[in-house]
Amino acid sequence: MRLQAVKGTQDILPRDQAAWLSVSAAAKEVLEAAGAGALTTPIFEYTDVFEKSVGDSADLVVQKEMYTFEDRGGRNLTLRPEFTAGVMRAFIEHGMHTLPQPVKLWSQGPLFRAENVQRGRYRQFHQVNFETIGLDGPLADAEAIELLYRTLRRCGLTRHRIKLGSVGDPEDRQAYNAYLRAELAGIAHELSPVSQERLRLNPMRVLDSKDANDQRLIAGLQRPLDRLGPPARAHLAKVEEYLGAWGVPFDLEPAIVRGLDYYRRTAFEAHYEGIGAQSALGGGGRYDGLIEMLGGPSLPGTGWAFGVERVIDAMAQEPDREAGEAPRPDLFLVPLDDDAVDEAAALAMSLRRAGRWVEFAYQRRNPGKGLRDADRSRARFAAVRGAEERQRRAWQLKDLTSGAQLEVVETDLAAALDERLSKNA
């Protein structure tokens, strides 16, 4: 069998790294400026961390799509399918509840779910995650949404928009689930198998069905936003007020739901026009019951995550994005004789220590072949040396875009290169 990447995983090639790094840099810049500390959690956790966080009415994704295995010590471990449960485990374990509140944390890295592979959906995928712990008011929700919107903006997106909703308080959810069960009881057998299971475990999740017949059957039903109690409705109104004042574009979305019992009140998603039917980049909401469910103190929280693959897909749709060009070497050194090979290597090491990206040929080249190597490397400049240049302690520096060339004494090469790079920046 020909070796290849496992279905649902992908290699991130050198040509693609610039976009990935730009997303990470944008998240770091925006979130840390808002007081968030970076937190890196293990890629796998004890399975109990995720099972406790989802409870008895678990979303089918968490129920059936976790990668769970037994290690050599007989312990049940799971590759993380989402960030929040592990972040809360770390918050509790390390006593972060004693820190001044709110505690803001952000994470990034790979996640794992055994789901159907399609555009923007992988079995190993990557997310940026943000949490605010210790505040229960609408201001914390609105700030989290604004940070999501601005992080995506910092990534270079201009056509993203927030969909805002609410799942209400626990009593609102219970009442709405009872309403759905009553309304769908007579036609439950017509629902898809997945929706029949959801109706039994967590009726609100039926609204998320992608099955066309399911959507036809539920088309006339009220949505969670239609049945909010007064406290949850007032909370949502205040979030709307903040977002409007801050210039964050949003639309009310009556059908936004969350599959896990710990979610409360505010729920939201970020969508991007131009990447097909699966336009959601990410989302989040308030989860006031989660920390206590995991054995910690009773503290409120709100947070979100977005899919890095989806954001990079959206970045590619931006017509005027500046991130289209992959990074290029500053200089390619071409040795024309055997002595120049070691000289090129020594010069490359010196320039690299000074922070420049320099590559070189590992054996002597004739001028034509050497410059073709430099072109293939996509370097901005080439420097050529043979016996004549060695006598003058110089290199021939050539601009590979314009073709302009001049001889530069070796001790002046770094300065001459920097001057020309700054002009071309």
Written overview of the protein:
- The protein is α+β, with helices and mostly antiparallel strands.
- Helix content is 38%, strand content 21%.
- It is built from 15 helices and 16 strands.
- The chain has helices spanning 17-33, 47-54, 60-64, 84-93, 138-154, 170-184, 193-201, 212-218, 230-246, 290-293, 308-315, 338-353, 367-377, 387-391, 413-424, and strands at 37-38, 44-46, 67-70, 76-79, 103-112, 124-133, 160-166, 250-252, 264-272, 280-286, 301-307, 331-335, 358-360, 381-385, 394-399, 405-409.
- The strands form three sheets. It has an eight-stranded mixed beta sheet with strand order 1-5-6-11-10-9-7-8. A five-stranded mixed beta sheet has the order 13-12-14-15-16, with helices on both faces. It has a three-stranded antiparallel beta sheet with strand order 2-4-3.
- Helix 1 runs antiparallel to helix 5 and helix 5 (138-154) runs parallel beside helix 9.
- The radius of gyration is 28 Å and the shape is elongated.
- The mean pLDDT is 86.
How would you describe the oligomerization state of the chains in this entry? single chain
What does the main sheet amount to?
A: 8 strands, mixed
Low-confidence stretches: none
Number of helices: 15
- Portion in beta strands: 15-25%
Q: Largest sheet, order of strands side by side?
A: 1-5-6-11-10-9-7-8
Helix content: 25-40%
* Overall SS class: alpha+beta
C-alpha end-to-end distance: 47 Å
Q: Using only CA atoms, what is the Rg?
A: 28 Å
Tell how many strands the DSSP assignment holds.
16
Mean of residue pLDDT values: 86
